[in-house]
Amino acid sequence: MNIARRIARIHTAARQVSKALAYRTRSGLIAAAVEHGTLIRTGDLLDRLGADDLKDGQRSWYGRHTAKAYRTAHLGADAVKVWAQHRTTGKWIHVHVYAPTDPALYAALGTYKATRHLSQADFMEVA
C-alpha cells in the first residue's frame, strides 16, 4: 500500500472518532514522543523554568522567537509540529516541538525581552 493511501485511511478513520483521538491519530509517533519527554513544546520549557506567570500572548511570542531561531540554525527548515490542546482554552492547536536540549529554545530565551531574565544561570540549572 502506498503512503498516500495509508494517510488517507488514517484521516478517514480519524473523522469517525472523538476529537482527542482524532488529533492523537494524526500526530502519531510525534505525540508519543511529546508524552515521553523526548520532544517538548515551548510552554513545557517555560513551565520547567518557573515562568507560569507569563500570559498566553507572551508564551506565543516566545514560541515565535524559538521557531525563528530554529529556522536560522537549520537552513530555513521548520521544526516538527504536533496537535496539542491549548493550556487555557482547550482548543486543539498545531505547535512546534523541539528536543529538550535544542539550542533554539535557549537562544530564544535571550532574544525575547519577556523571557530574557530566564536565561540567567540560576534559572538554567532547572532546565
Written overview of the protein:
This protein has 127 residues and is mostly helical. It is built from seven helices and two strands. The protein has helices at residues 3-14, 19-27, 29-36, 42-48, 56-73, 103-111, 121-124, and strands at 80-85, 92-97. Strands 1-2 form a two-stranded antiparallel sheet. A hairpin with a 6-residue loop joins strand 1 (80-85) and strand 2. Helix 1 (3-14) packs antiparallel against helix 2 (19-27) and helix 5 (56-73) crosses helix 6. It is globular. The mean pLDDT is 84.
Short description:
With 127 residues, the protein is mainly alpha-helical.
Task: Please specify the SSE layout and strand pairing.
Layout: H1 3-14, H2 19-27, H3 29-36, H4 42-48, H5 56-73, E1 80-85, E2 92-97, H6 103-111, H7 121-124
Antiparallel strand pairs: 1-2
Helix pairs in contact: 1-2, 5-6
